[in-house]
Amino acid sequence: MASKITVSKEVFDFLSQLRANNNKEWFEENKPTFKLHEKSVKGFFESVKEQLEHHDEIEKMKMFRIYRDVRFSKDKTPYKSHLAASFSRLGAHLRGGYYVHLSPGDSMIATGFWAPNKEDLKRIRKELEMDANEFRDVIGHDNLKNIWGDLQGDELKTAPKGFDKDHPDIDLIKKQQYVFTRKFTDKEVLSDNFLDEVDSSFKAIRPYFDLMSDILTTNLNGESVL
């Protein structure tokens, strides 16, 4: 029987040390160790992708680099103290994506639409303006809600231009992101069943993705725009 793919405690120990020694000298000295942990975590992310492909179509996986872009940031520490990857769904007909973020004391997974382009955002809002009942039914379903909780995302302080601030569904219309997040303790991340827990969580979001993909590939009359 194949051993389970897990996140090792040594990875979290290293990230904790990096957080406490976030400078180039320390990192360069410990870079060979980092490369081993990076390879290990990449293997975990590849297993997440493999599991996703059993029930979804994934276009690409992107593992983010450890180096921070400090050009426009007041925080000039050069390295992230987390490892993360995103997973994009396939093609124009499947919308949305998945994200896994591993960090001591701050691990999470996320899914949904965290940077919709202007056209997609307007299409979502117009759908919700017309009828938000199906959307509310999907995000309020027990299975999804028990795992992911409430819909999250940044939102405008008032109605977007062209929308009525007194619309009964303005709480949804004024959102700029339509995402769900789930946090994990270090113990949960380092457990043998973390990969399965990530995958079952992502499976539970599928009805939401199916609805949003339908919305984003049709016009308000339900006709395909692809």
UniProtKB/TrEMBL annotation:
Signal peptide: none
Protein name: TIGR02453 family protein
Source organism phylogeny: Bacteria, Pseudomonadati, Bacteroidota, Flavobacteriia, Flavobacteriales
Membrane-spanning ranges: none
PANTHER family tied to this protein: CHROMOSOME 12, WHOLE GENOME SHOTGUN SEQUENCE (PTHR36452), DUF2461 DOMAIN-CONTAINING PROTEIN (PTHR36452:SF1)
